[in-house]
Design a protein that fits this description.
mainly alpha, Arc Repressor Mutant, subunit A, two-stranded antiparallel ribbon, 68% helix, 8% strand
Length: 153
Protein backbone atom coordinates (compact mmCIF):
# COMPACT_ATOMS: atom_id res chain seq x y z
CA UNK A 1 0.00 0.00 0.00
CA UNK A 2 1.49 3.42 -0.96
CA UNK A 3 2.38 5.84 1.82
CA UNK A 4 0.04 8.74 2.49
CA UNK A 5 1.91 12.00 1.71
CA UNK A 6 0.46 13.93 4.68
CA UNK A 7 1.47 11.15 7.07
CA UNK A 8 5.00 11.12 5.65
CA UNK A 9 5.20 14.86 6.26
CA UNK A 10 3.76 14.42 9.76
CA UNK A 11 6.42 11.77 10.46
CA UNK A 12 9.16 14.22 9.53
CA UNK A 13 7.74 16.91 11.81
CA UNK A 14 7.42 14.49 14.72
CA UNK A 15 10.98 13.28 14.13
CA UNK A 16 12.32 16.84 14.09
CA UNK A 17 10.35 17.73 17.20
CA UNK A 18 11.75 14.79 19.15
CA UNK A 19 15.27 15.45 17.90
CA UNK A 20 14.97 19.08 19.02
CA UNK A 21 14.37 17.73 22.53
CA UNK A 22 17.59 15.76 22.32
CA UNK A 23 16.30 12.32 21.43
CA UNK A 24 18.42 10.36 18.96
CA UNK A 25 17.33 10.12 15.33
CA UNK A 26 16.47 6.41 15.65
CA UNK A 27 14.18 7.02 18.64
CA UNK A 28 12.48 9.86 16.79
CA UNK A 29 11.91 7.68 13.71
CA UNK A 30 10.53 4.79 15.75
CA UNK A 31 8.21 7.03 17.78
CA UNK A 32 6.89 8.80 14.68
CA UNK A 33 6.12 5.47 13.00
CA UNK A 34 4.51 4.05 16.12
CA UNK A 35 2.37 7.05 17.02
CA UNK A 36 1.10 7.54 13.47
CA UNK A 37 0.35 3.84 12.97
CA UNK A 38 -2.27 4.08 15.72
CA UNK A 39 -1.64 0.49 16.74
CA UNK A 40 0.68 -1.66 18.82
CA UNK A 41 3.74 -2.93 16.96
CA UNK A 42 6.48 -5.49 17.60
CA UNK A 43 10.18 -4.80 17.23
CA UNK A 44 10.16 -6.75 13.96
CA UNK A 45 7.27 -4.69 12.59
CA UNK A 46 8.96 -1.45 13.62
CA UNK A 47 12.26 -2.54 12.08
CA UNK A 48 10.50 -3.33 8.82
CA UNK A 49 8.44 -0.11 8.85
CA UNK A 50 11.42 2.15 9.63
CA UNK A 51 14.17 0.37 7.75
CA UNK A 52 16.25 0.30 10.95
CA UNK A 53 17.92 -2.81 12.37
CA UNK A 54 16.29 -4.75 15.19
CA UNK A 55 18.98 -3.80 17.71
CA UNK A 56 18.67 -0.12 16.74
CA UNK A 57 14.89 -0.30 17.17
CA UNK A 58 15.31 -2.06 20.51
CA UNK A 59 17.67 0.67 21.75
CA UNK A 60 15.32 3.37 20.46
CA UNK A 61 12.37 1.78 22.28
CA UNK A 62 14.34 1.65 25.52
CA UNK A 63 15.06 5.38 25.20
CA UNK A 64 11.42 6.09 24.43
CA UNK A 65 10.31 4.03 27.45
CA UNK A 66 12.71 5.95 29.71
CA UNK A 67 11.10 9.16 28.46
CA UNK A 68 7.57 7.84 28.99
CA UNK A 69 6.74 8.07 25.29
CA UNK A 70 6.02 4.36 24.79
CA UNK A 71 5.06 1.34 26.84
CA UNK A 72 4.57 -2.29 25.99
CA UNK A 73 2.18 -5.12 26.61
CA UNK A 74 3.11 -8.75 26.33
CA UNK A 75 1.28 -11.19 24.11
CA UNK A 76 2.85 -14.50 24.99
CA UNK A 77 6.60 -13.91 24.65
CA UNK A 78 6.12 -11.02 22.23
CA UNK A 79 6.21 -7.39 23.34
CA UNK A 80 3.76 -5.08 21.62
CA UNK A 81 4.90 -1.45 21.81
CA UNK A 82 2.35 1.34 22.07
CA UNK A 83 2.88 5.09 21.82
CA UNK A 84 1.71 7.06 24.85
CA UNK A 85 -1.27 9.23 24.04
CA UNK A 86 -0.29 12.83 23.52
CA UNK A 87 3.03 14.48 23.02
CA UNK A 88 2.63 16.30 26.32
CA UNK A 89 5.37 14.08 27.74
CA UNK A 90 7.85 16.18 25.78
CA UNK A 91 7.00 19.14 27.97
CA UNK A 92 8.56 17.29 30.89
CA UNK A 93 12.04 17.60 29.37
CA UNK A 94 12.79 20.95 31.09
CA UNK A 95 11.99 19.29 34.43
CA UNK A 96 14.27 16.40 33.61
CA UNK A 97 17.08 18.72 32.52
CA UNK A 98 16.66 20.74 35.71
CA UNK A 99 16.85 17.76 38.06
CA UNK A 100 19.31 15.56 36.20
CA UNK A 101 21.77 18.17 34.95
CA UNK A 102 21.34 21.77 36.09
CA UNK A 103 21.01 21.21 39.84
CA UNK A 104 23.89 18.71 40.09
CA UNK A 105 26.06 20.96 37.91
CA UNK A 106 25.25 23.95 40.12
CA UNK A 107 26.22 22.04 43.27
CA UNK A 108 29.48 20.91 41.66
CA UNK A 109 30.34 24.41 40.48
CA UNK A 110 29.56 25.92 43.90
CA UNK A 111 32.19 23.65 45.42
CA UNK A 112 34.69 24.40 42.66
CA UNK A 113 34.05 28.15 42.94
CA UNK A 114 35.58 28.17 46.42
CA UNK A 115 38.92 27.50 44.75
CA UNK A 116 38.16 29.20 41.42
CA UNK A 117 36.21 32.46 41.87
CA UNK A 118 36.09 32.93 38.07
CA UNK A 119 33.32 30.29 38.00
CA UNK A 120 30.87 32.73 39.66
CA UNK A 121 29.76 34.12 36.27
CA UNK A 122 28.99 30.62 35.03
CA UNK A 123 27.02 29.92 38.20
CA UNK A 124 24.99 33.12 37.68
CA UNK A 125 24.13 31.97 34.14
CA UNK A 126 23.19 28.56 35.46
CA UNK A 127 20.87 30.06 38.09
CA UNK A 128 19.04 31.90 35.31
CA UNK A 129 18.42 28.61 33.46
CA UNK A 130 17.40 26.84 36.67
CA UNK A 131 14.81 29.53 37.38
CA UNK A 132 13.52 29.35 33.82
CA UNK A 133 13.19 25.55 34.03
CA UNK A 134 11.35 25.88 37.36
CA UNK A 135 8.92 28.38 35.84
CA UNK A 136 8.24 26.02 32.93
CA UNK A 137 7.76 23.15 35.37
CA UNK A 138 5.26 25.17 37.44
CA UNK A 139 3.38 26.35 34.34
CA UNK A 140 3.05 22.80 33.01
CA UNK A 141 1.84 21.51 36.37
CA UNK A 142 -0.71 24.30 36.77
CA UNK A 143 -1.98 24.06 33.19
CA UNK A 144 -2.24 20.24 33.37
CA UNK A 145 -4.37 20.52 36.53
CA UNK A 146 -6.59 23.11 34.84
CA UNK A 147 -7.06 20.94 31.77
CA UNK A 148 -7.84 17.87 33.83
CA UNK A 149 -10.42 19.85 35.79
CA UNK A 150 -12.02 21.04 32.54
CA UNK A 151 -12.10 17.51 31.14
CA UNK A 152 -14.04 16.22 34.18
CA UNK A 153 -16.79 18.82 33.89
Amino acid sequence: MPAVPNLEEAELYIQRLLESFGLPFSAAVVYAKLVLSGRAMTINELAEATGLGRSTVSTALRILEQNNLVYYRKRGKTKLYIAQRGLHQLLLFPTRVLHEYLLPLHATLEEAAREEPRLRGLIDDLVFFENLAREVEELITRRTRELRGTARE
